[in-house]
Input
Amino acid sequence: MPKQLLLIRHAKSDWDNIKLSDFERPLNSRGEKNAPEMAKRLLKRGKVPHQIVSSPAVRALSTARIFAKTLGKSKSEIIQEPEIYEALPSTLMDIINNLDNKFSFTALFGHNPGITEVVTKLCNKDLYNIPTCGMVLIQFPFDDWDLVSSGTGEIVFYDYPKNEQD
Output
């Protein structure tokens, strides 16, 4: 079965508490509103990932947990992958290439610039900046994550909170 990868940038985070490290920043009120809205858009499309992988940074993991809840998945199913935090595109590619082949549809929650750069690399598309809580579904023509490489993906859809919906 062809592989599908949903890349999601974490929802909007809160910068108010200067005592928190970048890793510890929570979602702000807009992020708390956008995450379930975007997950509902996935449901409308009939798209529920088989596997959820997330950066353990508070804002990314919180976004993943909101998506999981909205999509009817258990928070305990979320795989936390520390390497996603501050990952270069090459690190994200390694993570993608090592995903479990028993899952044909995986959602990966991470951060910019890595998320935007890996979408650009996988699909040979010039995307300037995936906004917070933006998501891109990419399909690949093979059934092994190890075959995913530059230019092998096709964007199925690209959506973000301020995108007008029908």
